[in-house]
Amino acid sequence: MTTYEIPPQETLPPPHQDASPKRSKPWLLWAAVAVFAVLVAGATYVVSNSISPTYESSAQFRISVNESAGLSQDALLASNSLTAQLVQLLPTDAVLAAPAEQLGMSVSALRSAVSVGSVAQQNLLQITASGPSAAAARQRAGTVAHDFRAYMASDGTRQLSSYIHQLSLAIESTNKTIDRLRGSRGGVAGSLAGALAVNVKTEQALLSQFSQRARSAVPVVQQVQAAGPGGLVSPQPKLYALIAFLLAAFLGAQAAQFVRRRRQASA
Length: 267
Hints:
The protein is α+β, with helices and mostly antiparallel strands. The protein has two domains: 26-50 and 236-266; 54-234, no CATH class. It has helices spanning 26-49, 73-89, 93-103, 107-113, 134-183, 187-217, 237-266; strands at residues 54-64, 114-118, 124-131, 220-225, 231-234. Helix 3 (93-103) crosses helix 4, helix 3 crosses helix 5 and helix 5 packs antiparallel against helix 6 (187-217). The radius of gyration is 42 Å and the shape is elongated.
């Protein structure tokens, strides 16, 4: 019987395998995050820098009532109360008409550019005006502040003059009555004229006292801070770019961590 020998099968060499596993490069992810954050910040800066700027300038006044009484509690309370009323008065047409005409603006446009408030709810009145440039904001705030002070002085003088005028008319009318009574015959008329004369002297004394008290009661509007150079309010490209950079960096870092975890899970 013939015997056949089966030749041994040749074994193919195993495919070459790299002993070291393929390493990922995490620094590439962080570099991409940094580039992304820088690009977002740069785009934010360019866009915000193209927006029309807004500047603000402020002036402050100290409002005092009954200055002759000194810094009494009643005087301070009255000053604070008057300041709160002036906050409501200043944006009205009566106050803003003159400065609006000087600035070449409508009253409504100036009103929208001016804000008024009290500092810490005390007797410090602050007038803030906005404008497209630092010079425009300063001019608006300065003009409104100047005209407001002039309005307060004129209004106080007008009211004081009105009160004194009314009382003077009453005294004048009484004097005329006295003259008529003195020209009449009869003891009653003479007695009445004498009594009225005494009343006239009393009214004149009251008029003098009233005038002094009324002058002391006129509010004192003292400017403690003139309108300074306008400061940029918006936009603020550097601030917006910084916020955008931090936000983009945070989101990019979160995305990078997610990608790393996916790669580690699939390895």
